[in-house]
Amino acid sequence: MRLRPFSLGLTSPLETARGSIEQREGFVVAVDPESDGDSVSEAGVGEATPLPGWTESLSACEATLRGLQADRDDAGLADALARIDPGETPAARHGLALALADATARDAGRSLAEQLARDERLPAPADAVPVNATIGDGDPETTVAAAETAVAEGFGCLKLKVGSRALDADVERLRAVRRAVDDGVAIRADANGAWDRETAREAVERLASLGLAYLEQPLPADDVEGAAALRDRRQGGEVGADTDADTDPPVPIALDESVASRGVDAVLDAGAADAVVLKPMALGGPDRALAAAIRAREAGVEPVVTTTVDAVIARTAAVHVAAAIPDVAPCGLATGPLLDADLAPDPCPVSERAIAVPSGSGLAGDAFDGLR
Ligand SMILES: O=C(O)CCC(=O)c1ccccc1C(=O)O
Ligand SMILES: [Mg+2]
């Protein structure tokens, strides 16, 4: 296993209710067939790009991967992978799991999506996945301009960051966007855990008339019970008399940070979400993200795959994960353009609100050979 550190800047910071994301640092993880005692005979490449808050720190990620390099005897990389705790160091596990899955898929002459779908006994993966545009927090004019630009670029689903301002201001921003774009454009709002229960309840009442596709992580990650209560109350007819919430359909609730911190099963068992936002980097790898998506589907909860604003290797892997989920809803995978530089040219550009899945073997045929 070889590690190559990298650091990439964002073109402009992504403003969220949990602070601004300005830079992404991580490791390219390459597995080298010559030095590997496993049956794998192709080289593979992965990426470990931790984002504290969703994953371990950069230093914990590095310590885990370097520790495995140092310890390694003839046990092989599959055993090394099994020694990484996905709850403690999900990004480290993602890096190695992806490198091994890429190598396995390449060895079999399959795309990563085909390999993942096979492991999970799913139908053949999709050729393309629908995506949403990602719009950070900003004043109403900037937000509307970004929404209009995204729609002009072809996006049919917009995800807007909320929760950094007073609720009144966010309601105004979202109303302004709703007015500015065609009715057919879906709008999602992501509060990144910013609200308390009272504010979240007020938000779902006041946002009901906007027909949001969903409200993501309205409450802090650990408040899974609060999210379940928000959904119950909303469906129980106990709605405020001063709103139109009794005539508008309820706002669906999506959970993201709760899935990363409490696990998908806790979220599903609590009945806390209509949709789950699955970040392979935060869940410990493409395999784990796909397994979570299948469990969500079985529970009647819609899975959505997104990145943590990863570099091109992990973004491409997330596209393969999404493609393996039959009829996946729009995913937050259009994050490449947020970076001002990347590890390699992007084999997954967005075109007409979708990303085509690379057709070569593994992640993207020979696209990442320079990094392997
Ligand atoms: O889902 C998207 O559109 C892009 C990904 C995204 O918003 C995000 C990126 C980095 C960290 C957290 C989040 C998030 O969904 O909260
Ligand atoms: Mg989110």
UniProtKB/TrEMBL annotation:
Pathway: Quinol/quinone metabolism; 1,4-dihydroxy-2-naphthoate biosynthesis; 1,4-dihydroxy-2-naphthoate from chorismate: step 4/7; Quinol/quinone metabolism; menaquinone biosynthesis
Molecular function terms, GO-annotated: magnesium ion binding; O-succinylbenzoate synthase activity
Ranges for region Disordered: 34-54
Residues reported to bind Mg(2+): 190, 216, 256
Organism domain of life: Archaea
InterPro entries: Enolase-like_C_sf (IPR036849), Enolase-like_N (IPR029017), Enolase_C-like (IPR029065), Mandel_Rmase/mucon_lact_enz_CS (IPR018110), Mandelate_racemase_C (IPR013342), OSB_synthase_MenC1 (IPR010196)
Name of this protein: o-succinylbenzoate synthase
Taxonomy of the source species: Archaea, Methanobacteriati, Methanobacteriota, Stenosarchaea group, Halobacteria
Gene that this sequence comes from: menC
